[in-house]
Specification:
This protein is mainly α. The protein has one domain. It is 83% helix and 0% strand. It is built from 9 helices and no strands. The chain is rod-shaped, with a radius of gyration of 28 Å. The model has no long low-confidence stretch (mean pLDDT 86).
């Protein structure tokens, strides 16, 4: 970093008063959460394989349960992993197992989002606190015979620095927060469609004489 710029940043931080320390803490926390969410969503998106999803659904609908189970075994693809949970627990509740699996994934997608939500509210309040503290410092000189305009303006300047930083952090968090919330909502809807479609395909296969439960029982018996 340019030494002049670095000195300017440090001077601005110092002039902002002691409130700048909690403001800095919220900024670092926000950056950490944003990096965590970006990494999680990047990894999640890289595992999604729509082609294998279609193959698994087609196999399930045609009663080719062996191919369907093979496609879902040993994969990190989230929707196929969800289907595998359903297949394994078909004797108890295929739908319930898939819904529970989807709930865990959605919870991970929303992990630490409450931190961003809190920072969006907290950062401007800290900035407001800095404003109040700065103005209070300025009022100390009112009525003093040694009143100096520079001291008054310095207190107001500190107040403005804290406010600007608090608002900037809130804005920094607001846009990614809404983006990640939207992606979580889309993911939830995708799982709902996936589970409902899977249930329909399983019922369709059953209506054509393909017994999924009997297949899973025989498959488990062979593994034993």
């Amino acid at each position: 970093m340019n030494p002049v710029l670095a000195n300017t940043v440090v001077d601005t931080f110092v002039h902002g008063g002691w409130v700048m320390w909690p403001v800095l803490a919220t900024f670092l926390l926000a950056v950490g959460v944003l990096i965590d969410r970006i990494i999680w969503w990047t990894q999640f998106s890289s595992r999604v394989n729509t082609r294998n999803q279609e193959k698994a659904r087609e196999a399930l609908g045609n009663g080719d349960f062996g191919t369907c189970l093979d496609l879902t075994t040993g994969t990190k693809e989230p929707f196929l992993d969800n289907l595998q949970d359903g297949l394994i627990h078909v004797r108890t509740s295929m739908l319930g197992a898939m819904q529970l699996n989807a709930t865990h994934v959605i919870e991970r997608s929303e992990s630490r989002m409450w931190v961003l939500s809190t920072i969006i509210t907290l950062a401007p309040l800290l900035g407001l606190l800095g404003t109040i503290v700065g103005i209070m410092e300025s009022f100390k000189f009112v009525g003093n015979s040694d009143l100096a305009a520079s001291k008054v303006s310095g207190g107001i300047g500190a107040a403005l620095i804290a406010t600007a930083c608090g608002l900037s952090i809130a804005i920094l968090c607001l846009l990614p927060y809404n983006y990640f919330k939207k992606r979580s909502n889309v993911l939830r809807a995708s799982f709902e469609r996936w589970i409902n479609h899977t249930e329909l395909l399983a019922e369709s296969a059953k209506s054509h004489g393909h017994d999924l439960e009997a297949f899973i029982v025989s498959r488990v018996s062979k593994l034993r």
